[in-house]
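Quick one: structure tokens for this chain, please?
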Amino acid sequence: MADYSLACTTDGSPCTVDVCVGGACAHEPVASGDLCTAEGFDGNACTDDVCDAEGSCQHVPRPDGSVCGGFTTCTSLACRSGTCVQQTMSCGTCERCIDPQGCVGQPVGSCVGATVRSELDVRVGENAPSLHWEFASATNPGSLPPGFGDPLATSAFELCVYRRLPPFGLVAGTRVPPGGMCGSQPCWSSKGDGFVFLDKRNAAETGMTGLRLRRSATGRTRIRARGKGSDLGLPAALDGSDLVVQLYLRGAGAPSACWEGEPTRVIKNSAERFRGVE
């Protein structure tokens, strides 16, 4: 019979009980599924340290999504394939996560501005809602502006219209995915010094009928965007706020480039139409 009251030399295993049996030290395995003792912990918050039927400590990955550390409104630490990784809250089109509010629709402050011209024309009301934006920036001798990635295969774009002044808010936004077919033709094509998105029948359901992106070798940039219909997300009526438009090149969870048109001269501002130039 095992005598658990006597001290016995340990075998160093986190999954055995060291006991005296018939005057000799024996090492009896604990029940399968019991937690390992501290000696068996691997220090990984994403594994459960448990004993198997053979008396060995196994490090079993916890389910993906298990909490493994602190969190904020926009980020959390969660398990993925047995490793603790940081996750960022996924927001909707033209939104970004800001602690502690969460997902909000407001412009970012680090976009390439229109140094030559920008014109924004937004119409709502009884006729089909529409949007037209033209952007032009001159060569910057100090540094080249960002490129457009590869919309034929990997680069997505978000065209976003916000209220220009507080309280900020998203007025309209749509996402143009990479690649894809618009009817019998590819939605995207390369052309000269840039790319063209063409979808006159809204096959991609973005509301965008055309998006022309151009950048010369010296950095001279031109953007022309046209869209119409409900997929643009325009409201039934505008509220009289001055507007700003931003085009995001979406990378891994955050904008990797951004271009902005911020009209400084408002030509028309009513419930049915906003038109401004910069």
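The chain has no helices and 25 strands.
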